[in-house]
Amino acid sequence: MSEPDHTTPCILPPLPPALDNLWETIVDLGEALSADQWMLVGGQMVMLHGLIAGRVMTRATNDIDLLAAVLLPPSKPKLKACVRTVKNLGFAPLEANDPDLLHRFVRRTDGSVIDILAPDHQSWPPITKRPRTTLRIDGGTQALQRSQTVQVAKNARTTKIAIPSLLGALILKAAAFRTEKLRPERHVSDAAFLTSLVADPINLRTHFKGSDYGRILYLDKHLADPNHPAWTTLGPHREDALSTWRILSSPPANQGHLPPQET
Q1: What is the radius of gyration, based on Cα positions, of the chain?
Q2: pLDDT in 10s for each residue of the chain, 263 residues
Q3: E-assigned strand segments in the chain
Q4: CATH number, span 6-164
Q5: What are the UniProt keywords, alphabetically (predicted)?
Q6: Is 253 exposed, middle or buried (0-12, 13-18, 19+ CB in 10 A)?
Q7: Which residues in 51-69 are b (16+ Cβ under 10 Å) and which e?
Q8: 8 Å CB contact between 22 and 44
């Protein structure tokens, strides 16, 4: 189920050169692909949610995480369109150690990276370059189900970009933390920042479904600590964010701790 779109353009502020170049590419993607073909996830998704709320969070990164919107038919043409568009923007496939995997595309001229990803729980192989497939990300399906469109304005250019709702983004980060092996701590920090953007946690909690609570509970192993660095870096927003997290992570009324379910 899609979320209400944001009709007021989100104006990008001045950015460091590398990040500015990255957002030029994101706008390029928004102009070349329709909002129902792809979704922005990862660190730039977190940054965009912050900008919508009037907050700026910039994480040092040179990559774009692109989730192909392949929940509904026709799925395969959408993934092909994402791959074709990325190649047209000057990105070339980067060979992975796994001979069956191909998800990363690199532009040699500036070192920018785009990861083309697929949602979990899909029955068909998400082929990026036959016979290779891309990564399926946990929480990707619920993120696409909670899609919303944001108008992004950069200089004289304006385009529509799909991102998960704030709840969808938070659950996506909780799912990523559970499966990440290299740098899971970045997902904890992102989740804390997203939590600080929640205006009405009680209402947000009513929209939990499936494995949402189980994923939040897994992340709570770290965020239950009020002195965790993810909270302390929020400055004046720390206490409100902690209160919000306690509401989101508290047991459902009269139900105790629900076992996680897959969605």
Answers
A1: 18
A2: 566 667 788 999 999 998 999 999 999 999 999 999 999 999 999 999 999 999 987 666 779 999 999 886 667 889 999 999 999 999 999 988 899 999 999 999 999 999 999 999 888 889 999 899 999 999 999 999 999 999 999 999 999 999 999 999 999 999 999 888 777 889 999 999 999 999 999 999 999 999 999 999 999 999 999 999 999 999 999 999 999 999 999 998 744 444 444 44
A3: 6-11, 38-41, 63-68, 92-93, 104-107, 112-119, 127-129, 132-133, 136-137, 147-154, 157-164
A4: 3.30.460
A5: Transferase
A6: exposed
A7: bbbeeebeeebebbbbbbb
A8: yes
- Determine the residue type at 152: V
Q: How far apart are CA 164 and CA 142, in angstroms?
A: 9
In terms of Cα–Cα distance, which of 152, 145, 139, 226 is closest to 187? 139
Task: Note whether 39 and 67 are within 8 A (CB).
Answer: yes
The whole-angstrom separation of Cα 143 and Cα 41 is: 9
Helix axes 166-179, 212-223, angle to 10 degrees: 70
From residue 46, how far is each of 43, 56, 87, 133, 163 by CA, in Å? 5, 10, 25, 26, 9
d(CA 126, CA 119): 9
Q: What is the DSSP-derived secondary structure letter of residue 101?
A: B
